[in-house]
């Protein structure tokens, strides 16, 4: 079998917030069509890695190639137009806008995105809640909306930062179903997760992050065998 194409290749990535040096040479690969997680304790730089990939961190150095195109030096707009979409931990739902209005807010950046109908087929709950204001949504509905609205953009790669945080177990399961469905549809997904039990149900491989560096890669099929090691990394 042919090696899978590496869609995103991160090499020796450094990032700073002002004087503070946060990423110390992150390196990892995301093969096309896979769900890949970044696992690690709080504050190790997982969110900063996503923000750096999207070009929304002030100062970054190293290499981040998307489909072979070097993105260091490109604006966040240009990076998004290559086909990357970011769903931040804060979810970024506009509370004064309705579900429908939130849904059509991100611009379509390239052809190939899902139609509104296709998005609503994946998220029937959002169709029911169409005219509700963002503030009236539950946490789970807000997370669904945050994921749903980036599917229209035409992005091939989705960066999801802690999509299950603070959600009830039944909603977490539903988010898992959605991630598996998106994978089947051919999306490539980089996922930050605190819940490694959940991560194991959706991902193909896991990168362990410590102090702004990737210190290990664990294929999902070896996760159970490496559980003690992973727990010691995560301090749980
Ligand atoms: N806007 C910011 N300004 C300064 N420091 C920040 C900022 N955002 C995050 N940091 C610091 O960078 C480090 C990594 O943060 P982050 O990437 O959010 O970690 P994680 O997502 O793994 O919890 C932490 O020490 C955090 O305090
Ligand atoms: Mg974070």
UniProtKB/TrEMBL annotation:
GO biological process, one term: L-amino acid transport
Pfam families linked to this entry: ABC_tran
Family according to the record: Belongs to the ABC transporter superfamily.
Record domain ABC transporter: where: 8-236
Species name: Paramagnetospirillum magneticum (strain ATCC 700264 / AMB-1)
Species lineage: Bacteria, Pseudomonadati, Pseudomonadota, Alphaproteobacteria, Rhodospirillales
Nucleotide-binding found in the keyword field: yes
InterPro entries membership: AAA+_ATPase, ABC_transporter-like_ATP-bd, ABC_transporter-like_CS, BCAA_Transport_ATP-bd_LivF, P-loop_NTPase
Keyword 4Fe-4S found: no
Signal sequence, start to end: none
Domain of life where this protein originates: Bacteria
Keyword tags: Amino-acid transport, ATP-binding, Nucleotide-binding, Transport
Protein name listed in UniProt: ABC-type branched-chain amino acid transport systems, ATPase component
Transmembrane segments annotated in the record for this chain: none
GO molecular function ontology, one term from the record: ATP hydrolysis activity
């Amino acid at each position: 079998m042919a090696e899978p194409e590496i869609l995103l290749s991160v090499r020796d990535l450094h990032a700073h917030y002002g004087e503070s040096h946060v990423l110390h040479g992150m390196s990892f690969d995301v093969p096309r069509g896979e769900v890949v997680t970044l696992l690690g304790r709080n504050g190790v730089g997982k969110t900063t890695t996503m923000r750096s990939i999207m070009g929304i961190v002030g100062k970054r150095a190293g290499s981040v190639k998307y489909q072979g195109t070097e993105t260091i030096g490109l604006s966040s707009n240009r990076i998004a137009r290559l086909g990357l979409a970011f769903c931040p931990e804060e979810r970024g739902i506009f509370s004064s806008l309705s579900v429908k209005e939130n849904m059509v807010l991100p611009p379509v950046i390239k052809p190939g995105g899902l139609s509104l109908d296709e998005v609503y087929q994946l998220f029937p709950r959002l169709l029911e809640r169409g005219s509700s204001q963002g503030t009236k949504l539950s946490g789970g509905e807000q997370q669904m909306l945050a994921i749903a609205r980036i599917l229209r953009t035409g992005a091939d790669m989705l960066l999801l930062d802690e999509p299950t945080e603070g959600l009830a177990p039944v909603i977490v399961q539903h988010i898992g179903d959605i991630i598996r469905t998106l994978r089947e549809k051919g999306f490539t997904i980089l996922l930050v997760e605190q819940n490694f039990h959940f991560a194991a149900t959706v991902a193909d491989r896991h990168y362990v992050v410590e102090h702004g560096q990737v210190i290990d890669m664990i294929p999902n099929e070896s996760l159970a065998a490496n559980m003690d090691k992973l727990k010691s990394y995560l301090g749980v």
